[in-house]
Every structure is written in structure tokens, then in C-alpha cells.
């Protein structure tokens, strides 16, 4: 039996949940407390930059049983099994952490990985009761304090931080040598987006969030996912407006959907508790085609504010919110969900094919 240290998660409304730490527990940690209803995929979620500054609550009760994969790199220098090179969320909260793990591709436990990266885990609480609080009252800031830790950090307003600027790369990276030149605006991209855009037909140029990509002679433009409030990305929105005038094919996912909406003049709003799961159903507008999607976002496009030049492309079948946009005349479209879905279903991988085919 592993030695266990007591800890308490306190939400900004005063709600308290008592459990035990695993992973790193030498100091208290704060973050926006959100919940994820996926049954697996904790490695991909932990390494997803979109979870920056968040404390993720897993509603599936048993977590850690398949361990953590190796840090192997592919021929492009990208991690083979994770969505970035390190953990981005501030903590993970689970009902029952499994110290024993077994998987053909595992090289260490979740506990040891969290210790290496100085990220806290909390177990032994009723995560479904916690999730019920978050569903009823909305996502809230929270702090986890291990027993004996005296210094407790103050809550931050994460909506006032440009988290994209923190998680976007600082330099331009190029992959492949295909005839179609694609620019990926990396606002905190999951690596599986990069993997899916590297094809025999493409040269992929991966640029920072604020890079003026309009100065590049590109053939197609792709706007990635990312963390935080998209209205903070003033430079990206400005460059996107210029790209709309250029008229070459543009696609976006998740945050990219919101940024394209903002660049078009539409508005966004923050969802009460967001969409974080691998089972979000969406429907393509004007059809009966439905797909199960992986999602991770707090903000959403207000479809009622779209201009006459744009239509909704997909809608969420749970709550009716926007899941994508398409321009009526120009080759621009975006989706709110993750077609690259690491982890999650691969129903919508065709989105990348649609984008590549749109490039002449």
C-alpha cells in the first residue's frame, strides 16, 4: 500500500472535497476546475495544451490502470504517443487511482509521471458529486492543498490571461516537402493535428499564434486548437481578417473555429461548464449525418451573430450549440470538435482530407 497524504480541494463557492494525493504534492495548486466524462485518454488530455491552468476532474471512476507510454519521437521529432512534450494542466482529480498498471506500451505509472512534471493528483473523492456541483453552478476556480502545506496561492482570473501566448511555439517549424504549402497557426496545437497535416502532398509550416502568416506565399491555412479566451488573440484575429481577403483555403478546429468567427465579426460566449468528453454528438447542418466527436473547450460561437456570408456547418445534438462554420462562397470552414481526436473516436478524420482537397 502506497503512503497517502491527505489533501482538500476547495472551490471558490466554498465547497470542499477531501481526498489523498498522488503525483507531486509538495505545494498547493490552483486552477479552473473542469470535468471530463471520457472513459480513457488521460495521457492525451494531460499533454494537451488546451488544458493549461485547469484542474481536470475525471468522471470515469478508475484511472491510471494502463500507465503512461514512452516519450518516443517520430521521424519529424514529434512525440509518438502524447499531444505535446509535457503536462499542461495543473492537477488531475480522480475517484480511484490505480497504482498498479498494465499495458503493452506503458513504461511508467501515472503517479511517477506526475511527480516528474511536478503536477498534482487527487484521489479518493466522489468525483460524480463534484461534477454535479460543477454542472449546477458552472466551472469554478479551485485550490488543492495537501495536509501540512501552509502557503496557499490566491485564485487567478484565467479569463484575463493570454494563455495562447504561453503555449504557442516561439519559432517557425517546417515539415515535409510536398507541393501544397500549408501554414498551421499553432495556438497550442495538439500534435495529432500536426501529424495529420504532414502528408506526401504538403509542406507544413508551423508558426506562432501572432506570426504574420499573410506574408508567406501559402496555399492553405489551418488554425489550431488552444487554451483560454480567444478574444485575447488580437493579432491572430487581425491576420485572419487579412487572410479572408486573400481568399485561399482556410480551416480551423476548436479555438480555430472561435477565432474564425471573431475574425468574421461574430461573437462568442463562455459555456457554463464546457464540453470535455469523447462522446459529443454533432450533426452536419442540412443533413442527417451525425458523428460522435472528441471535444475540449469552454467557449462557443454565438451562431445568432454570424454575418450573411457564413452558415453553421455542424451543431451539437446535446445542447444545440455551434460546432462549425462554413463560408457561403469562399473555401473557408471550421469545426468546434477535434477531428484528430487523441484520445477519442476517429469518425471525423475526413475533415483533414476535405481541407487538403480544397487546396488547388
UniProtKB/TrEMBL annotation:
InterPro entries: Anth_synth/Amidotransfase (IPR050472), CarbamoylP_synth_ssu (IPR006274), CarbamoylP_synth_ssu_N (IPR002474), CarbP_synth_ssu_N_sf (IPR036480), Class_I_gatase-like (IPR029062), CPSase_GATase1 (IPR035686), GATASE (IPR017926). GO terms for molecular function: carbamoyl-phosphate synthase (glutamine-hydrolyzing) activity. Its EC number is 6.3.5.5. It comes from the Bacteria. Residues 1-180 are annotated as: CPSase. The active site is at 254 (nucleophile), 338, 340. L-glutamine binds at residues 50, 226, 228, 255, 258, 296, 299. It catalyses: hydrogencarbonate + L-glutamine + 2 ATP + H2O = carbamoyl phosphate + L-glutamate + 2 ADP + phosphate + 2 H(+); L-glutamine + H2O = L-glutamate + NH4(+). It holds the Pfam family CPSase_sm_chain. It is an enzyme of class 6 (ligase). Keywords: Amino-acid biosynthesis, Arginine biosynthesis, ATP-binding, Glutamine amidotransferase, Ligase, Nucleotide-binding, Pyrimidine biosynthesis. Residues 5-145 form the Carbamoyl-phosphate synthase small subunit N-terminal domain. The keyword tRNA-binding does not apply. Composed of two chains; the small (or glutamine) chain promotes the hydrolysis of glutamine to ammonia, which is used by the large (or ammonia) chain to synthesize carbamoyl phosphate. Tetramer of heterodimers (alpha,beta)4. This is Carbamoyl phosphate synthase small chain. It comes from Falsiporphyromonas endometrii. The gene is carA.
Amino acid at each position: 500500500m502506497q503512503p497517502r497524504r491527505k489533501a482538500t480541494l476547495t472551490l471558490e463557492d466554498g465547497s470542499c472535497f477531501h481526498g489523498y494525493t498522488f503525483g507531486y504534492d509538495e505545494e498547493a495548486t490552483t486552477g479552473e476546475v473542469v470535468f471530463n466524462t471520457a472513459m480513457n485518454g488521460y495521457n492525451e488530455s494531460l499533454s494537451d495544451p488546451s488544458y493549461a491552468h485547469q484542474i481536470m476532474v475525471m468522471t470515469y471512476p478508475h484511472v491510471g490502470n494502463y500507465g503512461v507510454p514512452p516519450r518516443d519521437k517520430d521521424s519529424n521529432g514529434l512525440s509518438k504517443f502524447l499531444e505535446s512534450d509535457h503536462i499542461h494542466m495543473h492537477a488531475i482529480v480522480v475517484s480511484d487511482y490505480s497504482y498498479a498498471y498494465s499495458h503493452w506500451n506503458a513504461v511508467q505509472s501515472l503517479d511517477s509521471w506526475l511527480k516528474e512534471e511536478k503536477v498534482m493528483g487527487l484521489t479518493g473523492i466522489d468525483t460524480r458529486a463534484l461534477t454535479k456541483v460543477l454542472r449546477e453552478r458552472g466551472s469554478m476556480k479551485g485550490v488543492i492543498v495537501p495536509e501540512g502545506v501552509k502557503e496557499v496561492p490566491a485564485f487567478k482570473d484565467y479569463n484575463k490571461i493570454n494563455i495562447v501566448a504561453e503555449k504557442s511555439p516561439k519559432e517557425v517549424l517546417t515539415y515535409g516537402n510536398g507541393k501544397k504549402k500549408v501554414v498551421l497557426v499553432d495556438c497550442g496545437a495538439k500534435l495529432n493535428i500536426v501529424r495529420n497535416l504532414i502528408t506526401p502532398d504538403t509542406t507544413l509550416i508551423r508558426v506562432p499564434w501572432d506570426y504574420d502568416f499573410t506574408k508567406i506565399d501559402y496555399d492553405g491555412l489551418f488554425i489550431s486548437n488552444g487554451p483560454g479566451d480567444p478574444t485575447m488573440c488580437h493579432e491572430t484575429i487581425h491576420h485572419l481578417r487579412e487572410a479572408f481577403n486573400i481568399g485561399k483555403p482556410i480551416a480551423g478546429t476548436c479555438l480555430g473555429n472561435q477565432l474564425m468567427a471573431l475574425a468574421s465579426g461574430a461573437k462568442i460566449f463562455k459555456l457554463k461548464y464546457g464540453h470535455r468528453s469523447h462522446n459529443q454528438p454533432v450533426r452536419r447542418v442540412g443533413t442527417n449525418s451525425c458523428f460522435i466527436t472528441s471535444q475540449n473547450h469552454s467557449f462557443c460561437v454565438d451562431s445568432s451573430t454570424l454575418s450573411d456570408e457564413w452558415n453553421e456547418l455542424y451543431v451539437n445534438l446535446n445542447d444545440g450549440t455551434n460546432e462549425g462554420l462554413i463560408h457561403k462562397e469562399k473555401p473557408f470552414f471550421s469545426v468546434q470538435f477535434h477531428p484528430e481526436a487523441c484520445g477519442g473516436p476517429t469518425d471525423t478524420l475526413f475533415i483533414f482530407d476535405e481541407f487538403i482537397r480544397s487546396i488547388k
